[in-house]
């Protein structure tokens, strides 16, 4: 039969979707200029698992960005988070991070950058741990512009996960930009199932040098 070869492929696709984890995240950021080279980004984000935990995570905190020169930016920040576990308890946690981002190229139409960060998670329950992340991103510069990135996460056991992200960033006036995006994240077996994340973001700029992002 002509269509017989499609049946195994469809079965594998359905099995992959059934074993994956689908979530949504919604971020809100405001960038404020503190000094000529120093900005602070006030960040908040929530995540949901539709059909499972529902709303399960919220976090907020500041991100400081210092422009060393026109191409390199130092990044440091802190988040306080609360996350629901399978017993429906909300567990508090603290996260500190720091690193840098470098511009690889910039033209009138597009730009590319690379970022490296080290993170420390201090958890109220469970083991504290460190995580390291390395991202490459390409973005358009138009009022409505696409972007795409790939980011690898490492920890003490080696590779932890990889995020393949794409989206659309839309300007809504001089100060406000909105994001609509998606990422696919294959993860190590002990970390969790492959994750599908549907993202939205609203970003305000109050004199900040750079447009805030929601993927930290």
Give a structural overview.
The chain is mainly beta. It is built from 1 helix and 11 strands, in the order H-E-E-E-E-E-E-E-E-E-E-E. The protein has one helix at 6-19; strands spanning 21-33, 38-49, 54-67, 72-84, 90-106, 110-123, 129-140, 144-155, 158-171, 176-185, 195-206. The chain has one domain: Outer membrane protein (Lipocalin, Beta Barrel), CATH 2.40.128.140. Strands 1-2-3-4-5-6-7-8-9-10-11 form an 11-stranded mixed barrel.
- Flag low-confidence runs: 8-18
Tally of domains: 1
Radius of gyration: 19 Å
Give the strand tally. Answer: 11
CATH topology: Lipocalin
The averaged pLDDT comes out at 88
Number of helices: 1
CATH architecture: Beta Barrel
Largest sheet: 11 strands, mixed, barrel
The end-to-end distance, rounded to whole angstroms, is 50 Å
The CATH superfamily is: Outer membrane protein
For the biggest β-sheet, the strand order reads 1-2-3-4-5-6-7-8-9-10-11
Percent strand equals: over 45%
Provide the structure class: mainly beta
CATH class: Mainly Beta
Helix content: under 10%
Sum up the overall morphology in one term.
Answer: globular
List the secondary-structure elements in sequence, H or E: HEEEEEEEEEEE
């Amino acid at each position: 039969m002509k269509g017989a070869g499609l049946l195994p492929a469809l079965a594998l696709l359905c099995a992959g979707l059934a074993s994956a984890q689908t979530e949504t995240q919604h971020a809100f950021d405001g960038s404020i200029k503190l000094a000529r080279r120093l900005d602070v980004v006030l960040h908040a984000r929530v995540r949901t698992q539709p059909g499972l935990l529902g709303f399960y995570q919220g976090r907020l905190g500041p991100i400081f960005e210092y422009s060393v020169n026109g191409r390199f930016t130092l990044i440091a920040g802190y988040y306080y988070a609360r996350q629901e576990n399978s017993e429906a308890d909300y567990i508090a946690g603290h996260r500190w991070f720091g690193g840098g981002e470098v511009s690889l190229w910039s033209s009138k139409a597009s730009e590319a950058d690379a970022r490296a960060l080290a993170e420390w998670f201090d958890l109220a329950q469970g083991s504290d741990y460190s995580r390291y992340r390395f991202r490459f991103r390409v973005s358009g510069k138009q009022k409505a512009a696409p972007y795409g990135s790939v980011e690898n996460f490492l920890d003490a056991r080696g590779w932890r996960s990889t995020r393949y992200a794409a989206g659309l960033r839309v300007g809504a006036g001089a100060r406000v930009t909105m994001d609509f995006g998606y990422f696919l994240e294959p993860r190590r077996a002990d970390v969790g199932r492959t994750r599908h994340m549907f993202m939205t973001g609203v970003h305000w700029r109050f004199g900040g040098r750079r447009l805030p992002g929601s993927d930290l």
